[in-house]
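thought: user wants a sequence for this fold. calling inverse folding tool.
action: design(structure=
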């Protein structure tokens, strides 16, 4: 009998040690579960905020794209006005003789104030470089004077034409409006592109944060599973521990005293709750483990 009592006492100590170990393991896994829960919830909150940012940038992009379409329509109208103004200007210009045909049968270029100024600037540059000397210098100077006089005559002729002057003014206004409309289109398109690129960046960040949140959730489920497993082993250890204690008490015989009987009743109550599947608080479980 003494040998059996000694064996049971050793088993009781071993089971008690295991119960403590399982309780510690359970508490550690529960702490990890809480930690992963906090991390997951924070990441999910960030994901929701990032998704909101994506939606805002998408709305901005759509607004800018709509603005681009509006500005393109305005630019198209401005282009039409420029074309109309140019046609009006051409109609108001004095009729010019048909371009002469060169010795190779090619038509000579149309003479305009712009083309004359270009020729004059070319000759001036050549003259400054000293490209024309001697008799050729006199010829070049004469040609430069002729071009200058021709420019003055053509300009005077055009300025005296009120309708032509008005057509030029309309063309300038139309070209200014055209340029402004084009700049507005470019500006709106740039803003739309920036919003689109920012939206893509937010989308990548959403995917990254969501993956981290899912990883934290997987760790949470893992730790919770381990905590539940350790808790199960802890409960089993407590049941084994009290079964051994019951056998030891039975071997020692009945114990007198109200305090001892009260403790016995309390142990039985707790064990009854445990065996029936009820959940015991941590304090009750630790109290149950301490009863001897």
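)
observation: tool returned 292 residues.
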């Amino acid at each position: 009998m003494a040998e059996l009592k000694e064996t049971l006492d050793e088993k009781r100590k071993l089971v008690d040690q295991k119960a403590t170990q399982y309780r510690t393991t359970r508490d550690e896994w529960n702490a990890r579960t809480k930690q992963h829960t906090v991390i997951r919830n924070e990441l999910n909150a960030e994901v929701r905020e990032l998704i909101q940012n994506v939606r805002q940038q998408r709305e901005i992009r759509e607004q800018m794209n709509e603005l681009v379409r509006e500005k393109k329509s305005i630019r198209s109208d401005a282009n039409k006005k420029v074309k109309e103004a140019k046609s009006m200007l051409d109609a108001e210009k004095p009729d010019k003789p048909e371009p002469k045909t060169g010795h190779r049968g090619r038509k000579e270029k149309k003479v305009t104030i712009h083309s004359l100024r270009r020729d004059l600037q070319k000759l001036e540059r050549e003259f400054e470089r000293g490209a024309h000397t001697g008799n050729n210098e006199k010829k070049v100077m004469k040609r430069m004077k002729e071009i200058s006089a021709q420019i003055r005559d053509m300009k005077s002729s055009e300025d005296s034409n009120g309708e032509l002057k008005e057509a030029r003014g309309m063309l300038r206004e139309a070209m200014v409006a055209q340029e402004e409309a084009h700049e507005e289109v470019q500006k709106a398109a740039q803003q739309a592109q920036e919003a689109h690129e920012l939206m893509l960046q937010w989308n990548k960040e959403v995917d990254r944060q969501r993956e981290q949140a899912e990883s934290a959730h997987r760790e949470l489920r893992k730790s919770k599973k381990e905590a539940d497993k350790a808790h199960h082993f802890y409960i089993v250890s407590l049941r084994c521990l009290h079964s051994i204690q019951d056998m030891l008490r039975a071997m020692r015989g009945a114990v007198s005293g109200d305090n001892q009987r009260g403790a016995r009743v309390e142990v039985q109550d707790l064990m009854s709750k445990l065996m029936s599947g009820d959940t015991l608080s941590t304090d009750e479980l630790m109290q149950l483990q301490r009863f001897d």
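thought: summarizing for user.
answer: Here is the designed sequence. Helices lie at 2-92, 113-128, 135-159, 162-252, 258-275, 282-290.
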